[in-house]
Specification:
Length: 578
């Protein structure tokens, strides 16, 4: 996200006037006038079928004070109830201001834009069921540029606690209301983490209101849930958002995160409804190219670090501001999502952010969030990004490093071992979807050694777009194991989209003669077919978890990670190919 640079009169946000009329257990509640700019519901299992539920609301400090709130619960097993008059348990100011101007925010009686995040909480027993919905709603929204009228605001979370499942939802970083600059590229990451190491899938969905059932809002013009800004893209694996706003004003973005455990079982979904403020700026935010260095034997890509259990290592990201006089500061959630880690920043422009940790595979996979801001005042310029940590696999050898790079149209796979004993060869395997791998070559082992050895292999026909490589290590006794996978991203047209409709996924911008195939997350083929035109409807699969759709043609391979579409919660979204 990016924000204005020079001092100017206070930006006044029109009141987010809302009123709530709640009827729970037959008791009417008074009309309320809170001013909401964001909302989300998350949860954590704290014992057998005992859950702590957190409702987070972001309020503009211009307007009426916060009031008590109501949460509604229902499951597919026939149970429903409401908990009313939840009190505030905490509040923090999250105004988008430089440090010297926080005291002058509207939260503190001043004139600069001010916001607070309020948390409401309850702990209760939820009977076992495979589909619980926890919901909150209010009557009205602020006037925005991408939503028609001022419909209500609705957010929900779903969870599965059947069969003894006891899990926590993904949670969002409290980074405030994004102020972004018109006609400038925006990089924004919601900073989602999952304490259980579950696999996460991100999507943009329609904003909703309660009518009284959850109902999609109507959007202005060409805007939609998956295009809250025209040209918006989201990485389904990381949640990284990119867009360039072309008009000032207020815009709503709704991000949904689905969580799957290690066997592909859907744990639940959470969503964050958040207002973005687009203003006219005369500066630019800091930039980064991702992870730029690593120590301690861990391998890395710009967005990913891979470390073995018990290995001490560090990795760094460098942030620079195009204006050399600016001072860059960096914040991160590293120490909270990687227990025992340290986070340091050296320099001011460039600013080098370094995370050091001793690998604990029980904490992985995990995404680490970073936000870089300059010292513009009163409103800072910022951007946010991520780095995902993966655990390596214990191998019959000591594998110090594995990486892959694009070189002159070839994929060069390189790896280094620290010692070898009893291994026969390395097989290089490649996948277009991260699930189904094929062996594309083999390299003989150097032989028993207690010193490091370096290997390389060239793939002369790499896939377009995103592909994945790994090693299969074959021992002399015939046993084998596989390494962690590393991605390679090569340029490919990203114009193709997969859009959910009433009858299935509607694929567009396909090359005639394309073949398509659905995989579940274990790599099992669910269905397959071929396209005879550039538009094709593919029926939904019966998978209860996320699926991977791969389309292959002479133009290359395109890949989508698609959330499950269930009868309980039909989600309409559009996903761009990778």
């Amino acid at each position: 996200m990016v924000m204005n640079r020079t001092a100017r009169p206070a930006l006044r946000i029109p009141p987010l006037g809302v009123g709530v009329f709640v009827l729970a257990m037959g008791v009417p509640h008074a009309i309320r006038a809170d001013h909401f700019a964001g909302a989300s519901i998350t949860y954590q299992c704290v014992g057998t079928n005992q859950y702590r539920i957190d409702l987070d609301l972001i309020l503009n400090c211009v307007g009426a004070p916060i009031t008590t709130q109501t949460l509604n619960f229902a499951n597919s097993c026939g149970t429903s109830f409401s908990i009313v008059d939840l009190p505030v348990i905490s509040s923090i100011e999250i105004s988008p201001l430089c440090a010297s101007q926080v005291a002058n925010s509207t939260c503190n009686g001043g004139t600069q834009p001010g916001f607070k995040k309020y948390r409401f909480q309850t702990t209760l027993f939820l009977s076992p069921c495979n589909f619980w919905t926890i919901a909150w709603n209010t009557c009205c929204r602020n006037v925005t540029q991408n939503i028609s009228g001022t419909p209500g605001l609705y957010v929900s979370a779903t969870l599965n606690n059947a069969g003894g499942l006891c899990d926590a939802s993904p949670v969002f970083v409290d980074s405030g209301i994004p102020y972004v600059c018109v006609n400038q590229p925006v990089a924004y990451n919601p900073g989602v983490s999952d304490a259980d190491g579950n696999s996460l899938t991100y999507s943009l969905i329609s904003a909703r209101y309660a009518a009284p059932a959850p109902t999609n809002v109507s959007y202005q013009g060409s805007y939609s849930g998956n295009q809250p800004f025209l040209g918006t893209s989201i990485d389904p694996a990381t949640g990284q958002l990119y867009f360039t706003p072309t008009a000032t004003g207020y815009y709503v973005i709704v991000i949904q995160v689905a969580s799957y455990n290690g066997v592909g079982q859907l744990i639940g979904r959470v969503m964050r409804d958040l207002m973005f403020v687009v203003i006219t700026c005369d500066g630019t935010p800091p930039i980064t190219s991702g992870i730029s260095s690593s120590t301690g034997g861990s391998s890395f890509t710009p967005a990913q670090f891979i470390v073995c259990n018990g290995s001490s290592f560090c990795f760094s990201l460098t942030f620079t501001d195009p204006e050399s006089a600016q001072v860059v500061s960096v914040a991160s959630n590293a120490t909270s999502v990687l227990p025992g880690s340290t986070f340091t920043v050296t320099g001011t422009n460039p600013a080098v952010a370094t995370v050091c940790w001793t690998g604990n595979e029980a904490q992985l996979p995990m995404s680490v969030w970073f936000q870089a801001s300059d010292n513009a005042c009163p409103i800072v310029n910022s951007m946010s990004t991520f780095a995902t940590g993966l655990s390596c696999v214990f191998l019959p050898i000591e594998l110090l490093e594995l990486q892959v790079r694009d070189e002159g149209g070839e994929a060069v796979v390189e790896w280094t071992t620290g010692s070898e004993q009893g291994n026969a060869r390395f097989e290089v395997q490649r996948s277009a979807d991260g699930s189904s791998f094929n062996t594309i070559g083999a390299v003989p082992a150097a032989g028993p050694s207690v010193t490091s050895a370096e290997y390389s292999f060239k793939d002369g026909s790499p896939c377009s777009g995103t592909s994945y490589y790994r090693l299969r290590i074959i021992d002399q006794d015939g046993t084998s194991s596989t390494s962690a996978l590393v991605p390679l991203i090569r340029s490919v047209s990203t114009g193709a989209t997969a859009t959910s409709s009433a009858s299935g996924w509607l694929l567009s911008a396909l090359a005639p003669g394309s073949t398509w195939e659905f995989f579940d997350i274990s790599g099992r083929t669910l269905s397959a077919g071929s396209a005879t035109s550039d538009i094709l409807t593919v029926p939904f699969t019966n998978s209860t978890g996320a699926v991977v759709l791969v389309v292959r043609s002479d133009e290359g391979t395109r890949r989508w990670v698609l959330p499950a579409i269930t009868a309980d919660e039909r989600t309409f979204l559009s996903v761009r190919s990778r």
